[in-house]
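In response to a reviewer's request, we include the raw inputs and outputs for one of the modeled complexes. The two entities were modeled together in a single run.
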Amino acid sequence: MLKVPAHQVAGHQAGDGKLGPLVDDSGLFYKPLQSGERGSAEVTFYKSFSSNTRIPENIRRFFPVFHGTRVLEASDGSGLCPHLVLQDIVSGHLNPSVMDIKMGANTWPPQSPEDYIAKCLKKDRETTSIQLGFRISGFQIYGSKESEFWKPDKQFFKSLSAQDVRLVLYKYVSSNASPDLDLNPNCAFASVVYGGSTGILAQLQELKAWFEDQTIYHFYSCSVLMVYGQEGSGAEVKLVDFAHVVDGEGVIDHNFLGGLCSLIKFISDILTTPPDEYSTKACLQDSQNNQSFCDNGIHE
Amino acid sequence: MLKVPAHQVAGHQAGDGKLGPLVDDSGLFYKPLQSGERGSAEVTFYKSFSSNTRIPENIRRFFPVFHGTRVLEASDGSGLCPHLVLQDIVSGHLNPSVMDIKMGANTWPPQSPEDYIAKCLKKDRETTSIQLGFRISGFQIYGSKESEFWKPDKQFFKSLSAQDVRLVLYKYVSSNASPDLDLNPNCAFASVVYGGSTGILAQLQELKAWFEDQTIYHFYSCSVLMVYGQEGSGAEVKLVDFAHVVDGEGVIDHNFLGGLCSLIKFISDILTTPPDEYSTKACLQDSQNNQSFCDNGIHE
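The model returned the following C-alpha cells for the whole complex.
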C-alpha cells in the first residue's frame, strides 16, 4: 500500500534501500523523522502550528495538513521508525510540475552550533541564497507526452547562477521546457500559473502580508513548494520542511521575508516581460547598469 | 569657519586630533574620503545616484544632497585630504534627536575578502543585526533644557539586546528619555514623530515600496538616520554611508529590505501599543509564545 513518491524533487529520497518519505493512495505523505533534534523539532512545529489559534485561516492553506505521527516500517528496511503523517501535496495534480525553493539568505538559525553555521554559510554563499535570498533546490517540469518530465540531478542545482534561476523560472511555466539552454522558453502557462487573482504571485503576496506581521516563528531552511498540474486546476504554493523553525520572540522573520520579496520580484518580472523580449531585455539591463553605475568606476 | 559637527552620533568623529567630518555654517557636511577603495566607492555611488535618471523624485529626498568633492585641511591636522561635500542633515533642526540604524542582517557585500566577511559576520552575530535585520549604532536623544542630550558611548551599543532596541525606540520619542532603564518612556512625541502621513513610519513605508522594486543598488552596511528637532517641524529619514554599495545586477536588495520591514514592524508596534501597556504586553507576549510554541517541547 505504501510506495515511493513519484514526484519528489528535493530532500532525502526513498528507493534503492535508502531512507525517505512514502505515500499511500489516500493522499497521505509519510515523512520519516529526521535523526536527533531535527525530527522532534519538526513534530513540535506541526503540533504548535496546528493548534495555534493566532494563525489566520487564509494562511493555514499554505501549510500541509498535519495528521499526527505514526510508526511504520522504514523505506530503507531498517525496521520500525516514527513518521510524520502529512497531506500529500502533489497527489491531486496530473503530471505535476513541481519546484522546491529554499528560502532565506541565511539558512542557519542564529543559535546553531558553530560547525553547522560554517557548513550552511558555505553552501549559502556557493549557491544563490546570499545573492538572491533563496535558492532552487529541486524541480521537475512536465514537457510533453513524449519527453515527460525534465528533472535534473542534484549536481545541477549546485552551480545555478542568478541568471540560470531566472531562466528556470521562465521554463517552469513553459510548454517547451527542456534542458536545452538555447531553446527559448515560450511561457505558455505564465499568465495561468503565475498570474491572475489565484495564481502563484497572488499567493506569494498573501504570504508576504502575513510575514510582514507575524512574529511567532522564524522559518530557517524552509522551502516554498510550487505545484501545478496538466489538469488545469489551480497552481498551489505550500511551505514545507520545518526542522529548523525557531521561536520568533516578537520579531518578524526578516530573513524569510527578504527572500520572499526577491522571489516575488522575479515572478513579477516574468509576468511583465514577455519571453520574446526576455533575452533582449537582459542585455539591455546589463548595459543600463553599466552605464549608470559601473562606468563611474566602482568596478574598475 | 569649519567646525566639528555637534550632533554626530556614529562613525569616525573629528576632535582631539582625530580624522572625522566637518561642517560649516551654510549647511554643508564635509566627510573625509575613507582610505582605499571605500572612499572612491562612496564617491562613485554619489556620482552614480545623483545622475541616475531611474531614481524616482520622491526617493531622492531620502538621500543627502551631493555637492561634489573638495580638498580641505583634514581635521586631524594631517594635511590636505579630499572630502565629500554633502547636505548637513541635522543643521535644520533645533536640539535634534538623532538615531543611526545600520541596516541588513549581513553587513558584508558577497564579493568581499574572506577576512572582511569574517570580521563583519562576527559583529553581525554579536549585535542584533542577524536577529533583527538591523542594529542601532548610535543615537542622541534630547531630554530637557536641564538634562540636554542623552548620548551613550560606543560601548553601550555593543551589548544591546532585541528588548533594549525596542526600549530605545520607545525612548527616542519620549520627553523623559534618560539612561535610567527603570523609568518608563512616556512616548510624548510618538504620534507626531513616528505617526501621521508624513511621519517616520510613512517615510519608511515609502522607502520600502522602492526597495521592493529597485534592482540598481545593494546597500550593504548603510544606515537609516532618523532626525527630529524641538522646533516641531517634520521628522526626517535619510540614508547615509555608501562605502559598501554594490551593483544590484537586476536583483532586489532583500538584505536591506528585510531589515527595513523589521524596523517598520518595531515602529508600528510602538504606535499601536501605548507606553503604559508596553511592559505588561511584553510579558504577555512572552507567555503566549511559551504557550503556543515552546511548551510543545522545542526548547526543552
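As requested, we also summarize the result in words. Chain B touches chain A through 53 residues (CB under 8 Å). The longest strand of chain B covers residues 134-144.
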